[in-house]
Model the fold of this input.
Amino acid sequence: KAGVTQTPRYLIKTRGQQVTLSCSPISGHRSVSWYQQTPGQGLQFLFEYFSETQRNKGNFPGRFSGRQFSNSRSEMNVSTLELGDSALYLCASSFGQGAGTEAFFGQGTRLTVV
Amino acid sequence: GIQVEQSPPDLILQEGANSTLRCNFSDSVNNLQWFHQNPWGQLINLFYIPSGTKQNGRLSATTVATERYSLLYISSSQTTDSGVYFCAVKGGSQGNLIFGKGTKLSVKP
Done:
């Protein structure tokens, strides 16, 4: 069974540009969550999608957005990139929504903003 | 929201030694996971353990939900155990994990 797949693995962008990251969950999993990891702030929750609906959102500006497709694949978009957006972005998939389900993570996308 | 504290923040061991990592959380939880972050950044699932005790090879974990802590035991450590270990919890109906700051483990040959 394939794991969670994130693309691309590495990305370099210039300030002001926008970027789209992709996440394909484990087959059969319908919940996808996104997290940002930085040395200063640690791992922080961005948003959670289940059945194409955003169920939960972290404390990030509106420049961060996401969506989920009918096949459960998810994308997140960051517009007007800032240097502080440089981070490892991790996607997690789980079978169901809510607290009682185990989450599995992809390898991450390392974004560098210059 | 729930606060998660991990200790110690850093741990240096000689190969073959045993260690205990601790995770304290501030409120009741119904999901607790331990992860190992590899050098490439991926979070590897170690245990899904909202309560009770589990063992997997040289690793074991115990969560005492009523006292709001979890312990990860690593026995006979190997250099490949090096990396950062994270504890993460979910509480109530929330779907997102709340992470601790991690324990950075370095195992010396």
Q: What stands out?
A: The mean pLDDT of chain A is 95. The radius of gyration of chain A is 13 Å.
